[in-house]
Amino acid sequence: MRDRELESIPEDLRDMLHRHTKLDASKAVSYLPVNTIENVLGISIDAYTSIIASNGGSYIIFGENECCISSGAVYAFLPVELSGVLERDEF
If you ran DSSP here, which 8-state letter would residue 67 be given? Predict the structure, then answer.
């Protein structure tokens, strides 16, 4: 996503975007419904996943029939940190 496209998003929505795409050891997983990404943030799934990847994260997209969210969802995660949480907590 180009900087000028990001600048067109209102500040409160930029904050939401940042919270869900900029992960770290204290927050290894995040998700947003596809509907929220496209209709609230006003960006494409490709743009959203590009931001996740540029911040060093990975992602998986679940369709509407693959999760409990009616529009589907994009989950962002940090593989190493998530693996550590799962191993430490023995899920």
Answer: S
**Topology of domain 3-89, CATH:** Ribosomal Protein S8; Chain: A, domain 1 (3.30.1370)
What's the pTM value of the predicted model, to 2 decimals?
0.84
Residues 24-81 pLDDT 10s: 988 999 999 999 999 999 999 999 999 999 999 999 999 999 999 999 999 999 988 8
SS3 24: strand
Calculate ∠ Cα 90-66-70, nearest 5°.
Answer: 115
Instruction: Identify which of 56, 58, 89 has the alpha carbon closest to the alpha carbon of residue 74.
Output: 58
User: Two tokens at 76?
Assistant: 């962002």
Please answer whether residues 1 and 49 qualify as being in contact, where contact means their C-beta atoms are separated by less than 8 angstroms: no
Domain boundaries, the chain: 3-89
- C-alpha 55/C-alpha 37 separation (Å) is 17
